[in-house]
Amino acid sequence: MSKKNKNKSQHQGNLSKSILDILRKESGKTFNHKQIAAKLGVNDATSRNNIIKKLAQLAGKKEIEEEGRGKFKIVKSNDYYRAVLDMTTKGYAYAMVDELEDDVFISPRDLNTAFNGDEVEIYIYNRKRNKKSEGEVTKILKRKRTEFVGVLDMQKDFGFVVIGDPKMYTDIFVQKNKMGEAKDGDKVVVELEEWPEKADSPFGKVIQVLGTPGEHHTEIHSILAQYGLPHEFPSEIEEFANQIDTSIQPEEIKKRRDMRDVLTFTIDPADAKDFDDALSFQKLENGNVEVGIHIADVSHYLQPGTVLDDEAYERATSVYLVDRVVPMLPEVLSNNACSLRPNEEKYTFSAVFEIDKNTKVVNEWFGRTVTYSDARFAYEEAQQIIETGKGDIPEEISIQEKAYTVKDEIVEAVLTMDKMAKKMRSARMRQGAISFDKVEVKFQLDEENEPVGVYFKTAQDANKLIEEFMLLANRKVAEFIGKRDEKKTFIYRCHDEPDEEKLVSLNSLVSRFGHGLNLKNRKTVSSSLNQLLQDVQGKKEQNLVDTLAIRTMSKAYYGTENIGHYGLAFDYYSHFTSPIRRYPDVMVHRLLQRYLDGQPSAKEDEYDEKCHHSSEMEGLSSSAERDSIKYMQVKFMQDHQDKEFVGVISGVTDFGIFVEIVDNKCEGMIRLRDIKGDHFDFDTDNYAIVGRKTKKVYQLGDEVIVKVKNADLVKRHLDFTLIGKKED
């Protein structure tokens, strides 16, 4: 073929693709040759004739169809799918399609203005057998978000908002009259308005000024704004909540089981403001004990169809940031009416169990109650009782700020329940539950919310006592509804089995530290995982292994279809115990009461949607939590720029190694190009980097000495300088 003919056929091919692209992007619409010419930006007679010919050819091949004279639209093939877009930081994306096993690769030129998390229609134009198929976005069905956080870069008559999210591949253009009060360099929330066809960037307007980048208040608010989470209640919601009658009424007490005379107490963190669960304890004449798990009766105050209920549903969860809690419910409910404070009568929703000496539940009762908490303890105080077997609480751990002695009957209750909890826990472990006692990083903050110290929190016996009885209530409530002959719509907390591939790669990774997993079956996976988590306790690789083990797990979610809970080894599990801070628990209370009243099953579709929303909001809130910890870690490290730290290599990539500092769990990066004295190459198989000249190896899990090179508060990112291996 001559060069001229070759170019001509290439041009023809490009024209076909261009026409199909136009019709595909607006797949429901029809276009005539003039409209297509205008879209392609051509208006000479030759080009128009070529378009007319090409339309006839494409119609002949049944790729497009003529609808009415001279009007064409795309023929929908089997290559179109609904998908959710997962952007990478490199500018390309993967489309996750429910019906397909593998994700579909979308190159930057085929994104067609779609962003991370958008629900889109894609067209697969290149199906591949053993590699990722390639596709393009043909339509945006639903934007995941239209508000973004960034820094305003102001020019003379316009500006750009540079978005902080590394998965956002474009700035947003803002006209001068759409900047509001924002000044150059301010951190702002910008709302996406449109992306005109020929424009390089989308257009938007500034809807909120967050403040100066790097300032504490600005950064915490921008974390919330980044995930679309509110930081205060609208005034009408506060007013509505303040109007609610929160007094305890004799007529209401008559409708409930009165448990005010039964010994009841709460155990919570020392700084807790809302106490949403209490335990009651009494010995029965037959030698068994009766334990009540009493939960704040939020659904008594939170009525469906009210503005307050709508707001709580939208939020779906409280958000716990390093320096504050953004509650799901206004304070009048969360810290007052619904909080099971000592020496106050409260409306509660209870699960009451008669338990024998082998911790077998021989009787159960669920329903609304009225209770009276006799005492409040911090975990440290309850721990003191468990460890000493006595009720003497020393001043240094007392929340009463003085030494005092706990009543004998409460001491006996705590000690008995601790023994029961330990039995229940070991039975769970035998059933295949997985024990993630992950170390929590906490900060000591001064009055200005500056981090002055870091400490680690691990669960002790007192925490585990509460945990076991909450698990019992959650499991028994789910079984009570789920095990019925007639299916009732209910909300389960579901957790699927771990991903096999992830388990295999975890196994090869931990083998570098001399550990191993047995992947033969479900039981061996669970027990060897537990063994692994036990073996790494206190070792340098603990946090790394804990984190990677958690990543092999599926994500827990809310659903109406029960699949059981793998991590807890329960066939039925629900969330019943925290309605002050989780909306699914409120729904569980409502559904449980509905079925106790003998009413028919609720609509499954309606609750499916609510479950999906709750799971999504939970995800956003835990991302915000993680970001606030990361922010505080960077802030903490800013003040320690001259100090050398021992760290563990926690990740290895082709552009750098990640190091986690042993003392404070702050993670930062050492870029390969910054390592002095040699050029390092990435060794994928061994999770290592190797020096070309010196053959020096830095491998995942190695202990190294680092210094802070750069602490970027705005990007929440740490860069380290590598000093060398610890043993050197």
Helix % is 25-40%
Mean pLDDT: 91
The strand count comes to 35
Distance between the termini: 66 Å
Major sheet characteristics: 7 strands, mixed
Estimate what percentage of residues fall within beta strands: 25-35%
Enumerate the spans where pLDDT stays under 50 for 5 or more consecutive residues.
Answer: 1-12
Number of helices: 17
- Using only C-alpha atoms, the radius of gyration works out to 30 Å
Write out the strand line-up for the largest beta sheet, numbering strands in chain order: 13-20-19-16-15-14-21
Overall number of domains: 6
Structural class: alpha+beta
Shape: globular
EC number: 3.1.13.1
Pfam families: CSD2 (PF17876), OB_RNB (PF08206), RNB (PF00773), S1 (PF00575)
InterPro entries: CSD, CSD2, NA-bd_OB-fold, RNase_B_OB_dom, RNase_II/R, RNase_II/R_CS, RNase_II/RNase_R, RNase_R
GO molecular function, one term: RNA binding
